[in-house]
Structure prediction request, 678 residues.
Amino acid sequence: MGIIEGLSSGFLQAVSLDVFPFLFAGAVFGLLIGVIPGLSGHFAMAMIIPFLYSMEPAPGIAFLLGAHSTVAQGGGLTAIFFSTPGTGQNAATLFDGPPMRDKGLGAMAAGAALTACFLGATFGAVALALLLPGLQRIVLFFGPPEIFVLALLALTFVAVLGKEDIIRSLIAALAGLLLAMIGLDNVTNQERFTFGLIELRDGLELVPVILGLFAVAEMFELWVKGGSLTGTQTKILSAKETQKQIFQGVAEAFKHWWLVVRCSSIGAAMGLIPGLGSAPAAFVAYGHAKQSSKSPEEFGKGNIEGVIGSEAANDAVEGGALASTIAFGVPGSSSMAILLGALFILGQETGPIMLTQHVDVIFVMLFTIIIGNLIGMIGGMFLVNPLSRAVGVRASILVPVLLVIVFTGAFAVQRSLFDIGVALFFGIVGYLMNQLGYSRAALLIGFVLGFTVEKNLYLAVQLSGTDFIFDPIPLTLATITLLFLAYNVWTIIRDRRQAKTTRSEQQE
Amino acid sequence: MSEEVDKVTGNKTTLELFFITLLGLAFGGALIAALTYGSISAQAPLVILAPLLLLIGAQINRTRKATDAKTVVTDFSCAVRGKNLKFSKAAGMAGWIVMLMLLILVAGHYIAIAAFMYILINVISKEGKLLSAMVSAGVTVVLYFLFEHGFNIEMYRGLIYNLLSGYLTT
Prediction:
C-alpha cells in the first residue's frame, strides 16, 4: 500500500462512524484521567486494553490512542490551576502556568497550553509521516553512546534553569541523579541505598516523587499562607471573561508559531530516542524557550512562552515515540509498550510489514493523535471555567481536598501505602527547597535522567570503551553540550559584571 | 513575643543551615554506604557524591557566614517552642499527613480520607460543621465511585477490615 493511498484510507477510517465514536470516547476519557493527579497516559491505556479483545483494529487503535493523546492536555490544566501536574510530563508547565494564574491569567495560560498541545501533537504526527520512508536508517544510528551524550545535553539545561544560584541548582541536580540510583543496580543486581526496604528495590516511582515535590509542597505553602490559590487576586473572572482569556491564549499559541515549531521539533526528536520519555523533552523545550526568549528574566514569573514551549514539546513526543515503536517495535516509553501489546491483541504486526502493507493503520494512528488532541483542546476549554473558579476556594477547604486526591492518586499507581509516604517526604523536601531557593526542576531532571545516564554510560563503555565519545554523533552532541555550557557560564559572568557595574554606578 | 515571631519568620538562613546540614549528613551516609558496594555498582554514586558533598560543604560555609551562632540558637529555640507560626503550621500539616497514613493503615483509605478532611476543615480551620461534613462525604463518595467502579482500583481496606474478613495483611 502506498503512502497516498494509506493516508486517504487512514483519514476516512478515522472519521468514519465505526471509528470516530471510539476516538471521541477515548479522548474524553483521557482528558478526565489527565486531570486526576497521579493517573497518567499509560494508566488510561491499560484501562482500555480489556475492551480491545472484541474490537476491530481501527476502532481499537482510535480508542486507545485517543485516550493517550489527551492525557497531557488534562494534566496541563491542573498544573496551571492547582500547581499539581496531572502527569509527569506536565511538570515543566509548573514554572510559568501557576504564576500566570496568580496574575489572573490562568484561563489564558490554559488556552495557550491546550492549543500548544494540539499544535505540538499535530507537528509530531506530521513529522512521523514525513519520516516514515527514512526512519529505519535514522534511529539505528542511536545506540547507548549517543543516548548517553543526549541525556547529558538534557542535564546541562539545569544550568539554564538554575542561573539564579548555580550552587543550589547543582546540589539539587546531583541529588536528583543520586536518587535515581536507589534500588537494584541494573548491571550487578546489587541493592543500593534501599535501607533493606523491599519497596525501594525497584527504585523510587516517578509519580509520587513529582506529586510530592510539586503538588504536596504547594499545598504546604498554601496551608501556611492561607487565603486561596489565586493569592492576592481575589476577583473571580466571569464566564465571559474566562472565555475571552481562553481565546487570547489560543491566539498567543498561534502567534508564537515559530516557538511551537522549534519546541515540537525538540519533542519529536527526543521522542524518537527510546527511554528518554516526554518529561525531559518538556524541560529541554522549556530551557530552549527561555534561552531564545527576548525576555528570559520573566520566565518562572508567568511568561506564556514557557507554557507554550513545554506543552508543545510534551505532545510532540508522541509522534516520535510512535515512530520507533512502529518501525522497529522498540517502545520508547511505557505507554508505547502498552500500544505494542495492544497492536498484538488487535492482530497487527509492527516493523517492515506495517510500514509496507498496513500504511493505513499508521495513518489511523496519526489522525487519531491529531483529531484526539483537537477534541481534547475543545473539551479542555469547557473545563477551564469550573477549574478557574475552584482556585478561588479557601485554602482551609481546598488543601485537604486536593491532598486527599493527590494521595489517592499516589496510592493508585502501584497500590502501595509506601508511595503516600514518598509523596509526603518529597512534599516536605519540595516545600523546603521552594522556601530556600533550591531548584525543584533541577532535582527532577536529575532524577528522570539518572537511570538513562548510568545505564547507557555503562553500555557505551562496554561496547566501545571510553573512546565512544570520539564517534561522530556523540562528538557532535558533546560539542553542542560544551558550547551550551560555556555560553551559559559566560552569560552568568556577564550578568554579574553588569549587576556590579549598575550597583557601583548607583552608589556614585 | 510578636517581635520574636516576626524576626524568626523573616529569617531563613537558620532553616537553610539545618536543611543543608541534614542533606550533608544524609549524603555523607550515602558515601559510606557506596564505599561498601562492588566497584561497578559504586562507580556512578561515587562520581555523583564527590562533587555533591563538596558543593554542600561550600553551601554550609556560605550559609554559616551569613548568620551567627546566637541567631541560630534563638531561631531554633523559637521553632521548637512553637513561636515560629509558619514553621508550626507546616510541621502541623506534616503531622496530620502522617496521621492520615496511620489511619489508612488501620481503618482503610475511605474512612481515613473522610476523617482527615473533616478534621482539617472543621477542627483545625474552624469551618462550619455542615460544610465540613458535606465536603468530606462528597469528595469521599466521588473518589470511591471513580476509583472502585470507574477505574476498578481497589483502595486499601485497612487492618480492621482485613482482620474481620478473616486474614491479616497490609
User: Anything to note?
Assistant: Chain B is about 80% helix and 0% strand. Chain B touches chain A through 58 residues (CB under 8 Å). The first helix of chain B runs from residue 2 to 9.
